[in-house]
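SAMPLE LOG
Freezer: B-3
Tube label: C17
Construct: single chain, 372 aa
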Amino acid sequence: MPVEFLGIAGTNPASEVTPRPGGSLDLEYTAKLARAHEDNGWDRILFAYHSGSPDPSQVAAYVAGKTDRINLVVAHRPNVAYPTLTAKTFATLDHISGGRFEVHVITGGSTADQAAEGDFLAKDDRYGRTREFIQILKQAWTSDERFDFAGKHYQFEQFVADIKPLQQPRPRISFGGSSAAAYAVGAAEADIFALWGEPLAGTREQLATIDTEAAKAGRTDRPIIQIAFRPILAETEELAWAKAEKILGRIKDVQAGGGAARGRYRDPRKTPENAGSQRLLKAVEAGERHDRALWTAPTGLTGGGGNSTALVGTPETVAAALLDYYDLGVRIFSARGYDIYDDAVDFGRYVIPLVREEVAHRESAVRKDLAS
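STRUCTURE (predicted):
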């Protein structure tokens, strides 16, 4: 499949380097950022989820009316709505968006944030619930006959949805995680398996595990692999690394001022619960610079907070680094800069075309080899 690019559908300009200037939902900014992605070559944008954030489904419906092409990836936690209701809600959103909806199912990596919405399941039980949730979504979206479900977490009888997604057979379902339970669930059920940006060796290790778990589940295919980075771009390598060091200073300034303490970013003083963040911190311990352009200093400063490893350099260097991951089998690149709007424009203008051009060249060469 061709390469794809996933950006962020932020509802305000806040980031690790920018304190939030006002409320959590700035509709003008939300539409402006979505259009910046659409107008600069991105394929998809993610509507993130947090216990106190604006509802991503409703924001996605709003953005659907402000855009024409870009796919809308809505993050969703299984604990917040019963899967039969969720199936109808998302099928409706697929119609509203003209078939541009996708869902990213979040099991939940923070016990505290799960508890904030009344979810007290243990972590492995949450993964079991996620597996059932995805199975129900798939069947609800594709079955014209009433069906029963009798699982550990969900039980119902004779459900059939009167509204099915516009996309056939159904929208794509993405999933992320790096624990043993996560690998088992995602490899068995997900269309897209999302990873955070580790050094190449760590990513290769994770892909081997996903392949093993997919085979155990009886799959003949691997889920599409997605990986996330924070791009830091400049015209020269020296300027890019100088910019990177300034970003570290800006993160420290925001942390000192309390601007990052609004529930969106991890407390760097606490050991993260989730396996993905723990893996990122191991990469930090191994050094700040890895492979062609990977930089882990922001990861250490933010306590392994999710998408936090950066690719630093000129557009050509960052594109080459992404292609190193493409060679491992990655087909979707998630990228979110620190200055969210400006970086979305720059990455779209200067990096995405380079990667697409080289991928097209490689695919053409493969087709020629197969034909000869």
